[in-house]
Amino acid sequence: MAFCVCNTSAIAFAETYKCTINGATTFSQSPCANGTSTPANIPTGEVAAADYHDALKRNEKDAVALKKLEDARHKDELQREKEMKSLAAKNAQAEHKCAALRANEKWAKEDLANATMKTEKKARIKLNRASEKTALSCKTN
Questions:
Q1: Half-sphere exposure of residue 137: CA atoms within 13 angstroms, side-chain side
Q2: Which of 107, 92, 88, 94 is nearest to 136 (CA)?
Q3: In the structure, how many helices (H) and strands (E) does the chain have?
Q4: Contact (CB, 8 A) for 11 and 44
């Protein structure tokens, strides 16, 4: 986890003085000898202890919230994957059933083509029923 303290108001300032001597500017921790110094607030980069601890607490809360979100996302992904597998299995089963129905229809056509005068009516009924079953159960592309 990355940690960042971004509260600039909590940055401490060191006692620093800006001195100008003969046109040259210098910085010092003590006032200039000739008395022309002005205080210069330069941040030291130090953070107040209370702000640091507050940031740690916020970071811990954010880490807990992030973990909850990641867990919820993972759970949703697993559920979607399960649903997709179930749907794929149902589609495969339906396609297998359609393949069997198409085969029966094909065989019924062959039976009609090879039927005698005596068996032709029965073969035609068988073909019509096989065609209807295929049309009801299978999508035609």
A1: 19
A2: 94
A3: 2, 5
A4: yes
pLDDT, tens only, 16-64 = 778 877 778 887 787 777 767 777 766 666 778 888 899 999 999 999 9
Instruction: Output the six-digit token pair for 30.
Output: 């003590």
Is the entire prediction scored with pTM above 0.85?
A: no
Q: What is the predicted pLDDT for the residue at 24?
A: 80
Per-domain boundaries in the chain = 9-47
**Distance of alpha carbon 61 from alpha carbon 51, whole angstroms:** 15
Give Cβ neighbours of residue 127 (< 8 Å, ≥ 6 apart): 105, 108, 109, 111, 112
C-alpha span between 13 and 18 (Å, rounded): 14
Residue-wise over 95-120: b if at least 16 C-beta within 10 A, else e?
Answer: eeebeebeebbeebeebbeebeeeee
